[in-house]
Amino acid sequence: MMNVNITEEFPQNQEYMDLKAVTGLPEVEISAIATALNRSVLSLLARDDNDRLIGMGRVVGDGAFYFQLVDIMVAASHLDQGVEEMIVSELLSRLTKIAPSGAEVTVITDVPGIKLYQHAGFKLLYPDRYGMARSL
Question: Of 66, 72, 83, 123, which is most buried with the most CB atoms under 10 A?
Answer without folding.
Answer: 83
